[in-house]
Amino acid sequence: MAAGYGELLRCEHAARLLIGTLVGRLPNATAALAVVLFTRAEGGSYALAGALSAVYGVGNAVGQPLLGRAVDHYGQPRVMLPAAVLSALAMVLFAVAGLDPLPVAYAAMLAAGLFTPPLEGGLRALWPGVLGREEWVHAAYALDAVAQEVIFSVGPLLVTALVALWSEAAALLVINAIGVVGALSVVLSPPSRRWRSAPREAHWLGALRSPGLRVLLGTFFFVGVALGSIGVAAVGYADEHGGGMVSSYLLSALGVGALVGGLAYGARPWSGAPERRLRVLVAALALGYLPLVLVPGVVAMTALAGLSGLFLAPALACVFVVIDRHAPRGTVTEAFSWLVTTFVVGNSVGTAAAGPVMEHGGVAAGFAVPGAAGAVALAVLLATGRFLDGARGVTAGEPQAENDRNRAVEPGFRAGHQA
To answer: Fewer CB within 10 A of the end CB, N or C, for the chain?
Structure first.
């Protein structure tokens, strides 16, 4: 397994692009914690901290697909680097101005989220050209999914270390400076500078005109709901089982499970249509959430949390491949960015829903939310399967999906005016 990933990362530019993207995403991965810590240090309430974080999240959800579309139009360096600088400057404004006047703080949060560069979508658009071999691209998607678990685990630790060494404001400044360096490393790389999106058909919906993509976004919205609700339910479980670090045990186990599953999934080639494989993975993911309602003791619950995360990274890696096949020509960065937005929104909905459910039905009911959300995700995927399966055949004269090595066709896409 390690040898296979090592061979992949020895490909020219691969390690630089992966590491640069991870470093560039640090501000986004740590924003919620860093904003809460800074707001509390400035004398603000938890409610205000939550509101500021929510504004950042809304800006991020809106900005990712818009910037992704701009990248498809104008290339990566001309969009991603200015966006990273603007996002960092907005965070600098927030750190310097503080909470007074409050409208400035809200405006800074909105701008920081809105201009967060779509590095995730950009990296996934680059992999086919950098790696060439289809099996390596699929392994890179798996490694990408695993890296997300790493960055969301390491990022908060880095923030708390910076706060302990200096201050909350310094943590904001340092993290965002590091993010700009990461983005700079990516956009100055030869693959990023060379990359050009395929010509695209002018359409106001952009990537969303693909029925297959809409199916995938609907599915992974509910996967996001499941993950958001688990975080809240874990806190409720900890309150009933000694508090302290119990919730972190559960969430860390979920992350470890995803890491192990993702590494194992990407270590071998897979035959057959990824659309069919995605249904199996989402079904396994949904089933993995169901035992959480048993809420056993801490050791057993930690093991169940690890099991529930086992198929998360494989499902993400597989959906990256399927999005790659279904994105209309010239929209691949935008399509991947829509997945980021959908996942973030679903996560927020799950966080908001789990609290009231748990208050009325207890911790077990709170853990029933991810099970229900996983079941709905699978139902969406199964009920709309014709939109995914219909893209695998090739009709004479139809253009191909931008990165599809399997020559998949997006249903309904026809050559026409090129934007």
So the answer is: N
